[in-house]
Every structure is written in C-alpha cells, then in structure tokens.
Amino acid sequence: MADQFSFDxxxxxxxxxxxxAVEHTTKEVRxxxxxKGSKTELTxxxxxxxxxxxxxxxxxxxxxxxxxxxxxxxxxVSVKALTFGKLEExxxxxxxxxxxxxxxxxxxxxxxxxxxxxxxxxxxxxSLPRLRVNG
Length: 135
Hints:
This protein has four helices and six strands. By secondary structure, it is α+β, with helices and mostly antiparallel strands.
C-alpha cells in the first residue's frame, strides 16, 4: 500500500482573501493624504482572475502595490503567487500593470509553484530513485 501514495503540487490562492485584500487596499488609498485627487483604482476581475491597478504615476503605483502586498500578507495570501504583468500606459497619463491570481483552472505556467515544478520534479526523481514521478 505504501507504493500507492502520491501528492500533487498545486498553485492557487483563496480568491475571497485576495478580494478582501483589494477592498482593504482601496479603503486605505481613499483615506491617505498623498492619494487625494489621484486617479488610483484597483479592479479585480474574478472571472478571469486578473487584478488591474490604475494610478497617476509609477511612484503612486508602487505605493499602492506595497499596500496591496502588505494586505495580502496579513490575509495569508502569498505575494509570490501573484504574477505581475508589464507596466502599460493608460489614458489620461496614467499607468497600470496587470496581476494574475493563480487558481485551479489556470493552465500550467502560472504562479510560483508552476515556475519551479520542473526543477522540483527533477530533484525528486534524482534523490529518490525508487520513486516513480509522473508528469
């Protein structure tokens, strides 16, 4: 029976916790003095598992991302699981990156665990020769 045990490496986060972190970040951004009058907003698309952050400039964008990371850490959401997209110019002189939130439905290649899955697979295969590794 010992030869039948297996485990899977999965990379997903609780989307509800990410949503809560986004809401708390939005509240804090509205209350902070340095964001008064700015066009900073966070939009979570739950269907596509994509978070878009819109801000006036890179300084404010980095500040918002730092707040978001702190809120994610408080809610036990790994910041390493978020995949940061490249910075895009938006309308009105604003900037926005896209962040992808890994989930069970996401194809391989997304998230921190999937990036290292091949190395993990090879390490297991070499260190435990009697272990049969599928994938």
